[in-house]
Amino acid sequence: IVAMQAELVEKTESLGDALDRIRQLYEAIETDLDEARRVQTSFLDATYRRFTTADVSLWLKASGHVGGDMVGFFEVTPHIFGFYSMDVSGHGVAAGMLVARVAGMLRNGAPDLNIAVSSFGEGRFAAVPPDMVAAQLNAQILNEVHGERYLTMCLGFLDQRSGLVRMVQAGHPTPLLLRAEGDIERLGNGGMPLGLIEDARFSSFEFRLCRGDRLLLYSDGL
Predict the structure, then answer these.
(1) Based on the number of CB atoms within 10 Å of its own CB, is 36 exposed (0-12), middle (13-18) or buried (19 or more)?
(2) For the segment 170-182, what is each residue's pLDDT rounded down to a tens digit?
């Protein structure tokens, strides 16, 4: 009995040591995940912006510490701004790293580094056609991720002077346009996700926003 009791005490102490190590590992993982979440949300510079004739409101909520969704906007000229909604396949850190990588290529406040903005020198910029942006992202994701993950996206540009929107839909849920009169229009042509097929073709489409209209972009997480 004494020998069995001594063995039980020894095993209990070993179990306590193992639980302490597991707790330390869990705390380290939690710290890393919190840091990853802070890095990801840092790409969401602002959740609201009032432009000259249009307002942009963003909402992002991950299902866990880190998610594969991202929304954002960026100024091209005083009259034109871009906006996007995107979703990487899967969840967790791997999806969060890819979506942060793409969001960094569409960063607001850095037009020289934004792949959706072309520079003409002397501080003059113009929007790159959305279908060309999608094609470039498709090639870059395939090159970096090698088909392990893909990305769906809606990317558009609004010209506030005319209300004209040019947009590309790359496998993302259908944008909804709520007219001021109450009618709802479903926009887009579907399109292929980014990072699945080499040399996939993407096409832009256009529509016009009028005073009082609202455009909704969302991911399947909604």
Answers:
(1) middle
(2) 999 999 999 999 9
Q: What's the rounded Cα separation, in Å, for the pair 155 and 177?
A: 15
pLDDT of the residue at 96: 79
Half-sphere exposure of 27 (CA within 13 A, CB side): 6
CA distance 21 to 35: 21
For the whole model, what pTM was predicted? Answer: 0.81
> How confident is the model over 58-82, as a mean pLDDT?
86
The per-residue pLDDT for range 150-174, each reduced to its tens digit, is: 999 999 999 999 999 999 999 999 9
Q: What is the 3 state secondary structure string of the chain?
A: CHHHHHHHHHHHHHHHHHHHHHHHHHHHHHHHHHHHHHHHHHCCCCCEEECCCCEEECCCCCCCCCCCEEEEEEECCCCEEEEEEEEECCCHHHHHHHHHHHHHCCCCCCHHHCCCEEECCCCCEEECCHHHHHHHHHHHHHHHHCCCCCEEEEEEEEECCCCEEEEEEEECCCCEEECCCCCEEECCCCCCCECCCCCCCCCEEEEECCCCCEEECCCCCC
Q: What percent of the chain has pLDDT over 90?
A: 54
